[in-house]
Every structure is written in structure tokens, then in C-alpha cells.
Amino acid sequence: MEAFLQPLQGLAEFEEIKKRCSVNRGILNISGCMESQKVHLMYGLSGLFPCHLILADDERSAKEIYEDYRFYDKNVYFYPAKDLLFFQADIHGNLLIRQRMRVIRALLEQEEVTVVTSIDGCMDFLMPLEKIRSSLLHFKSDSVINLEKLKADLVELGYERVGQVELPGQFSVRGGIIDIYPLTEENPWRIELWDDEIDSIRSFDAESQRSLENADEITIYPAVEKNDGKDMVSFLDYFPEEKTLLFLDEPNHLAENGEGVEEEYRQSRMHREEKGEQDLPVQWLCEFSKVQKELNKCRAVSLSALEPRAVEWNFAPEKFNLTVQSVTSYNSSFELLVEDLKKYKKQGYQIALLSGSRTRAERLAKDLRENDLNAFYGQDYDRQIHPGEIMVMYGHARKGFEYPLIKFAVITE
Q: Which of 258, 273, 348, 391 would bridge 119 by S-S if both were Cys, CB 3.0 to 4.6 A apart?
């Protein structure tokens, strides 16, 4: 992704921001940012630390950031927040738990990880990560299995025993064949025993039962999230302090939504208690003020359009204001696109032009060349874009943007 990282080196503030990120505790405030450009800057700073947590004010914003970030780094995860009093789990089945458990697997297994969530994703209490690690089931070829204990362990992890597995969160035992469909996998696993020893492990298609690929070792993650009210932590605690850089998208909006979530939860719980509902979850919500206090202790970067209010936020004394402009989408108006690209070319801009398909990108590069523009179809995103060049590539950004001071622009069709 050098095509996108290299231009940032020419931004006077960028080196200073990187330096401050490395030494600062508290929140480094960067204003003047907008939409997809925020994600570009986040990615530019991501090389400083192996772990990154990006907080948005609500789920819609978090998903938009996630989609933009995926263009730069496919190894990014979306962590959905639980809805108030678990209503969302009723609507979506175990889809919500599947997404969350895949993030937990990434945090336990990967050295480098980027996660995007909304502020309420950090406001429910969770089992400590190490406690989850200790509950995992590991299987290796040639290892010995106690079948009765295995069945009990799977039920304890939230798996449902069925005659034949069809959906994530199910398992079956038929003689010496154990099928398990973990939430973290696209396909179920089949373990075949020879007496009480594992003879083979392979994935298979749940519908056709056709074998897919063999494995020597697998790990089974829980199918439910447990909250026993003991030693609970927040999602922030899942990220090692010394290895993590946090990004706060519009901190004023984060605070407003965090307080709103807390009030909505309080009202909802009060109404349900008044109706006489029993077994409401214990210690579900972490107060926003406590979450904010923890965020203030972290190494974090705030990105906002306008300089945010410092109320209850621990902003570092150094402030940065970037000069960034939005570039509107051309909605397939080729003539208008050519006209603007010629203006950019005269000024010596480096241009990354994103198209929704590879075929379209190749054709667009050819059409631009026929209009006397120095355009080429690029598949090597590490290739530096030279002044006056237009790299047309397959990719996505919610909205185009430009840095006028360094003459670099990302344009969407």
C-alpha cells in the first residue's frame, strides 16, 4: 500500500503526529479530518503498533469505517455491539455471537489485528480473555478423547447436540464420528476416532457432507458468551496497552452516544422490571463515564472535522489541524471526471482513482489515456504514484478526498 502511504511522508504534520503517538499517553487531537480520509490517516499510523481499536459513535459509522479500512488491510474485523438486554441476539440468531467470537479468536491467535466497533461495543461486561482461552477445546491427530467428557464440554461451551449438524453452534456424535460446527469457521469439522484415539480431522460441507480439507490440529471456540458477574472486564481490556493504538472517530459524538446508550438501557431495564420480568442479566452495562476514564489512559488518536470539546476528555496539549478537502463522486460522468483530472495533472497531483470492478478499472485507464491523461491500471499497490500520474485501481472508498498541500487525491468514480 505504498501508493497510499508514501504521499503522507510529505505532510509536514505527519512525522510529528507519528512521533507524538509513540510517546504520548492520553489522546492526540487531530482536526480537519473528514470521512474516508480519516481511515486513510488511521492506516498511515497503523504501522506504529501491532494492535488497533477504532471506535465510532454508532454501528452505521463503524460499518462504514470497516468497509473503508478493508481496502487498505483485509485483516480487519468488525465487532458488533450487543443490543440492549440481548434483543439483537433474538433477531439475528447467533450471527452476532459469530462475529464477536471471530474477533476474540483473532485477538488470541494473531500478533497484529485491527478491530472496528461502536462505543457501545465497549460498554458491556465480558469474560476475561484469558478465561476464554482456558475454556477452548484443542484436538490433535493421534490424541486420546474421553467421549463423555467431550460431550459435556461442548454443551458447557454452548453447543447444541443434534442428529446431524447443519448450523454453526451444533455438534453430533454418531459412533466414532464427532461433527462440530464452530462459530468461528465457515464449515464444520469431522473428527473420526479409532477406539478412543483421533484417527483423522477434516472439514466438510454441511449440506453435501463432502470432505473438504484435512487438518492435524483444530481449536473449538465457545458458542455463547457467558456473563457470570464475576471478574468481568470491558472490551478495552482485551487489547494489550503497550501494543495498542486507539482511534476515536469524532469524540464528541462518541460521548453523546455513549451517554445515550446508558440512558436507553436504564429506561429499558426499568420498564421490564416494572412488568415483572425475571432473570434480567446482571452487571451487563459498563457506565460510559468509566469507559471514558479508561480511554483517557490509553494511547489514542482523536480524528474529527472540528476541534472537539475537551469536556472529560484527556487531550494532549499538542493539537494538529490538517488541510483536507472532500472530492465528490462523479457518478459515472466521464466528461466531468476528465475535466477535473486535467486540472489535477496541471498542478502535478498524484491521483489514485478507485473503481468498483477490475474490468471497469482497466477500461477506465485506457479511456483516460485516449484523453491525453497519464493513466495506468494498477494492481501493485506498492508502486509509487509519480506527480501527474493517475493510478486506476479496483477498490472502495465511501467518498473521495484530497490533501492540497501535498497534492495527493483519492477519487471514487
A: 258
Region for residue 406 given its phi and psi (left: phi exceeds 0; alpha: psi -120 to 50; beta: otherwise): alpha
Q: Is 407 exposed, middle or buried (CB count within 10 Å of its CB: 0-12, 13-18, 19+)? A: middle
Maximum Cα interatomic distance, the chain, rounded to a whole number of Å: 76
Write down the pLDDT at residue 84.
60
Neighbours of 286 (CB within 10 A): 22
pLDDT digits (tens, 9 = 90+) for 6-31: 999 999 899 999 999 888 778 999 99
pLDDT in tens, 28-54: 999 999 999 999 999 999 999 999 999
Residue type, 99: Q
pLDDT digits (tens, 9 = 90+) for 135-151: 999 999 989 999 999 99
Which one has a higher pLDDT value, 308 or 106? 106
The C-alpha atoms of residue 123 and residue 255 are separated, in whole angstroms, by 12
Give pLDDT, residue 89. Answer: 47
Residue 85 burial (C-beta neighbours within 10 Å; 0-12, 13-18, 19+): middle
**Three state DSSP letters for the chain:** CHHHHHHHHHCHHHHHHHHHHHHCCEEEEEECCCHHHHHHHHHHHHHHCCEEEEEECCHHHHHHHHHHHHHHCCCEEEECCCCHHHHHHHHHCCHHHHHHHHHHHHHHHCCCEEEEEEHHHHCECECCHHHHHHHCEEEECCCECCHHHHHHHHHHCCCEECCCCCCCCEEEEECCEEEEECCCCCCCEEEEEECCEEEEEEEECCCCCCEEEECCEEEECCCCCCCCCCCCECHHHHCCHHHEEEEEECHHHHHHHHHHHHHHHHHHHHHHHHCCCCCCCCCCECCHHHHHHHHHHCEEEEECCCCCCCCCCCEEEEEEECCCEEECCCCCCHHHHHHHHHHHHHCCCEEEEEECCHHHHHHHHHHHHCCCCCEEECCCCCCCCCCCCEEEEECCCCCEEEECCCCEEEEEC
pTM: 0.92
Cell of 278: 425475571
pLDDT tens digits along 54-102:
999 999 999 999 999 999 999 999 999 987 655 444 445 688 899 999 9
